[in-house]
Amino acid sequence: MPCVRKACPTRRSWTSRRRRLRGAFSRRSSMRWVRSRRRDTCRTRLRLPGNAMAGRKSLSLEAALARHRDAVAAFLASAAATQPDAWTRPSAEGKWSPAQIAEHLSLAVEAVKRELNQGPSMRILLPAWKRFLLRRTVLPGLLSTGHFPPGVRAPREIRPTLPIATREEALRRLEGAASELETSCRQDPRGETLRLSHPYFGTLRASDLIRILAWHALHHRAQLPGAEERSLP
Q: Is residue 5 part of a domain?
């Protein structure tokens, strides 16, 4: 009768244990690889293109204020040249009239000036992670080209109402608000370290926010009747 050699139970247990450990380490390394790939993908998606980085070059507060002054002056000149019968007439159904656009610009400048004077700022509309993404993806292009994403609704604090002021009164209000904002920025002791709030981007350098206000004025200037025939300064 042949002799049958029985397997050692101790040896079998060690073999099965090694297999389990090898499988566990394999699963851990696989999950570690997946997590690293996810991190690399997120970093790649958030990396800014070269032309977008041009908009993030530092600009002094004084230079930003000069740009805003010129943009408001361009809007005021175009608005003053608007025909009287077109001042309160919307350009299309659901659009704002030139009078409402002027009020909207005044409200935006006054909101920033109110925060500078230790008053309430505009309400933040997005969670922190969305503000971070917008600062990395949308803000550089906005600062460099003035391109505003379509379909974004204005915050409630700066939505215009039915116009009751005359054209002269509305333009004087915008001119005065821009001048007071410039004076408040210059008198603020924080200087270049001054930071202000934006409802979609969150806290920004004051120079960046003033640049957005300048592009904002030019953006709405292009919506005035006949603005396409008048070249920018």
A: no
